[in-house]
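TICKET: design request
STATUS: open
ATTACHED STRUCTURE:
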């Protein structure tokens, strides 16, 4: 009887890992605890549920996010196939109708002849041929198992942005434009004057936050990459104008000038009936979110379809624990994938699942390791996770700074990034040919 692989967790990384194993001919048992049990941030039973934003970031190949997605497509990514079929307008970014996306991923997984989807909570880690991809909201029982296996973990808090009804927006006060007019004008922009911004900032910084559970207080630590807007605002009166309220690249057609500050809204679904507040992850009480965020121009009568929430996440001290193929150093038939490894972002998580899935498949077939070149975005992320940086290990998303510099000097940033991307794609193409050979 052919050996099978276990994949624990039906999120982005777990689905990608299971798909890659199955496509390699390895029978897979994919475990997902929903709907038997839900985490604090999950609400629907389909796989690959997007809980924070529906944006998968930039699509341009000379951007870090675009390069990452191009590399994933070259490696047969299931999620990229589904995302492109469920895309909604988002300027130069790839955004999806999240319900359609999750439903399509679930359908493809269930239809694969080599994947058995098992709906139950895993409380014990199998001894071999296993990928753990349970994400930053892993259940307490499995978290304890992981901590015993790995000996350490780090904790931090993550926050999600509110979603408002499109029909409740005052379109007479809002203008439609993408920053720098890149792509289609798919963002709604809520302009603020200096006085409006000052009043908003004052109320935001004094708004009441939701209480934390006593057992979570000692772990309270905010990750810079998903900073609650109220915490960011507390760092200074002008901080938001250089972050999620930056007006650069936008022009209010009513005044012909750049606003003092701008809140951007992005489509949450294909039909454009829902919009999320870009960059407005928050831990404010629901009543405070309604009060303060209705001070934003055009949101005076906003209907909140989902309030922002905050929950505890955790990630491994991966440089001490994992190899560059995401296998555990002390037990190399056990792999990890997704945000728990220290990659930050939807596609980054999915990309780690691709590597883990392909790596375990090759290990089970007694083939050479699947170690991507470090001048590819996926290879650079894997290297960062397994080696870390010069400071305390923190989660990292795709960025051009992870890649080695070019040997030739190119002054223009876009031209330089284009060359780096071309080099990465060429390296990956050659690597894949060698793997097949």
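STATUS: resolved
RESOLUTION: sequence designed for all positions
ATTACHED SEQUENCE:
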């Amino acid at each position: 009887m052919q050996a099978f692989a276990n994949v624990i967790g039906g999120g982005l990384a777990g689905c990608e890992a299971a798909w890659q194993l199955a496509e390699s001919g390895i029978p897979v048992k994919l475990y997902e605890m929903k709907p038997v049990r839900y985490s604090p941030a999950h609400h629907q039973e389909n796989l690959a549920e997007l809980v924070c934003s529906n944006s998968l970031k930039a699509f341009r190949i000379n951007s870090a996010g675009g390069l990452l997605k191009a590399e994933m497509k070259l490696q047969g990514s299931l999620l990229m196939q589904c995302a492109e079929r469920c895309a909604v307008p988002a300027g130069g970014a790839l955004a999806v109708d999240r319900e359609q996306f999750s439903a399509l991923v679930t359908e493809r997984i269930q239809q694969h002849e080599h994947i058995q989807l098992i709906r139950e909570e895993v409380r014990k880690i199998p001894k071999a041929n296993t990928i753990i991809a349970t994400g930053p909201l892993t259940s307490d029982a499995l978290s304890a198992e992981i901590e015993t296996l790995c000996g350490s973990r780090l904790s931090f808090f993550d926050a999600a942005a509110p979603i408002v009804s499109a029909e409740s927006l005052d379109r007479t006060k809002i203008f439609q434009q993408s920053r720098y007019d890149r792509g289609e004008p798919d963002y709604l922009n809520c302009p603020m004057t200096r006085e409006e911004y000052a009043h908003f900032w004052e109320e935001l910084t004094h708004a009441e936050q939701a209480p934390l559970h006593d057992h979570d207080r000692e772990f309270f630590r905010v990750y810079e990459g998903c900073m609650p807007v109220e915490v960011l605002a507390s760092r200074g009166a002008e901080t938001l104008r250089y972050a999620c309220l930056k007006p650069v690249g936008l022009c209010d057609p009513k005044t012909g000038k750049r606003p003092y500050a701008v809140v951007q809204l992005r489509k949450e679904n294909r039909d454009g009936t829902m919009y999320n507040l870009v960059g407005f992850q928050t831990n404010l009480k629901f009543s405070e979110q309604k009060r303060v965020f209705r001070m934003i121009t055009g949101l005076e009568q906003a209907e909140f379809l989902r309030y922002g929430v905050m929950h505890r996440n955790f990630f491994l001290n991966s440089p001490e624990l994992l190899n560059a193929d995401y296998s555990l150093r002390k037990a190399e038939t056990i792999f990890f994938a997704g945000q728990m490894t220290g990659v930050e972002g939807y596609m980054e998580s999915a990309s780690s699942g691709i590597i883990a899935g392909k790596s375990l498949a090759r290990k089970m077939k007694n083939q050479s390791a699947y170690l991507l070149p470090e001048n590819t975005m996926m290879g650079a992320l894997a290297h960062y996770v397994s080696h870390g940086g010069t400071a305390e290990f923190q989660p990292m998303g795709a960025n051009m700074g992870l890649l080695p510099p070019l040997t030739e000097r190119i002054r223009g940033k876009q031209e330089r990034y284009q060359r780096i991307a071309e080099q990465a794609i060429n390296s990956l193409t050659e690597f894949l040919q060698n793997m097949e050979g």
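CLOSING REMARK: The first helix runs from residue 12 to 23. The two ends are 27 Å apart (CA to CA).
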